[in-house]
Amino acid sequence: MFDKYDSNKDEKLDGDEISSMLLEVFDYFRAEGPIQESSSVGETVKSAPSEDEMQKLDRLYKEGYLSKERYRAP
């Protein structure tokens, strides 16, 4: 999914690229209604962000991008 939204192929997701990704995800969930499990990856969808997700968002906010390495980190 990272590569799909890394439009300039710099292995970093900037604010615009993150926005595009989030819009698609939100549109998907809005169209499908509330679901507890993603059929594509078999992961439980959480209602509140995890600490790791919060750290990723914090890094995006502070640095203006999210690296591919950090995106994949658990």
Describe the SSE topology.
Elements: H1 2-5, E1 12-14, H2 15-32, H3 51-63, E2 65-67, H4 68-72
Integer average pLDDT: 76
Rg: 13 Å
Q: What is the approximate shape?
A: globular
Question: What is the spatial order of strands in the main beta sheet?
Answer: 1-2
What percentage of residues falls in helices of 4 or more residues?
A: 40-55%
Major sheet summary line: 2 strands, antiparallel
Number of domains: 1
Q: Tell me how many strands there are.
A: 2
The arrangement of helices and strands along the chain is HEHHEH
Low-confidence stretches: none
DSSP strand (E) fraction?
A: 5-15%
Q: Number of helical runs?
A: 4
Task: Specify the oligomeric state.
Answer: single chain
First-residue to last-residue Cα separation: 15 Å
- Sheet/helix structural class: mainly alpha
Any overview of this molecule?
The chain is mainly alpha-helical. It has one domain. It has 4 helices and 2 strands; from the N terminus they run H-E-H-H-E-H. The chain has a two-stranded antiparallel ribbon. The chain is globular, with a radius of gyration of 13 Å. The two termini are 15 Å apart.
